[in-house]
Amino acid sequence: MRIPLRKELSAPTSSFMALELVEAHFDPNWHFHPHYQIFTVVEGSGTRFIGDDIRHFEAGDTVFLGPNVPHLWRSDRAYFEGNSGLKTHGVVVYFTEDFLGESFFQKPEMHLLRQLLQKSYRGLDIVGSAREYVRQSLNQLSKTDGFEAIIQLLTMLNYLSHSTETTYITSVGYVNTHKVSETERMQKVHEYVMKHFKEELRLNEVAALTNMTEAAFCRYFKSRTNKTFSDFVSEIRVGYACKLLIEEKFSVTQICYESGFNTVSNFNRQFKNLTGKSPLQYQKEYRRAGG
Fold it and tell me: Where is the HTH araC/xylS-type domain (predicted)?
């Protein structure tokens, strides 16, 4: 059965949807949809894929995504195991640009909101005090309806339009080039890498999943994700290493091999290239931040 990459959302009784999501794990399918989305993780951890960005996520992760930005919050493997006792919890609001009429956001008074919507096409990480404000607003919004819900949503968007506590997620010039027909192909690659990133990944085996030669697969993957396949794997491994560093159950050397790297020197180099910090610096800064 094909897994739809383009997710269809509809709310027959309202102009937008605010939902509280409590499941054993987050939706494991990499997808996109024509809606704006503001989402916060209340409970859960794993690897987050948004456009061409990959990183570890945990409770508190809060983002604003524009239409058709591919995304996936892939829960850690433990969440898919039976009787784990783990659960995920998130709150999300979906809306379209015309949910209050085709020209609403074109009014002169909506200038800052229009700019915010444009920025969201690269995806926005919401940080600092803005993160807590949005988390509380989403929680209230999921329990509100009617006119009050519309006011709540607009108030939150207005707050974000004035906030300086947002950072871009995807790289400059990122564009979603995926087609609905490519769903199964890219989903297979994601699934395979997430299951085997701790092992040696052979390019010929991954290419075979897509019925391509190695050279054709490399060109295809780069054109669709704005990065090489090896960079993609490194980002997943570093994201997992970040999780282990935060948990502080293993030494840096143990984390290196547990994350799929063959040597400590390569691990340190790749980690610093992607985070700007050494593994120990990352761990110390997380402690200082009160994580």
Answer: 187-285
